[in-house]
Amino acid sequence: ERFGRFPHRNAILKRRSTQAEVDYLNSAEAFTG
């Protein structure tokens, strides 16, 4: 919701992640499910 999409799905959907999404995914608050 924070990015208007689900950054953890980018690789599966062959989308490029923004730097903000990459930073989020590498953070402790990222979705780990």
Instruction: Write down the domain tally.
Output: 1
Task: From the alpha carbons, calculate the radius of gyration and give it in angstroms.
Answer: 9 Å
Beta-strand percentage range: under 5%
Q: Major sheet: size, sense and barrel closure?
A: none
Overall 3D shape: globular
Mean pLDDT: 79
Number of strands: 0
Distinct helical segment count: 1
Helical content, roughly? 10-25%
Spans with pLDDT under 50 lasting ≥5 residues? none
Q: Cα distance, first to last residue?
A: 16 Å
From N to C, what is the helix and strand string?
H
The computed structural class is: mainly alpha
Describe this structure in words.
By secondary structure, the protein is mainly alpha-helical. It has one domain (1-33). The protein has one helix at 19-25. The longest helix is centred in the middle third of the chain and has 7 residues, at 19-25. The chain starts with 18 loop residues before the first helix and ends in an 8-residue tail after the last helix. It comes from hydrothermal vent metagenome. Pfam families: DUF924 (PF06041).
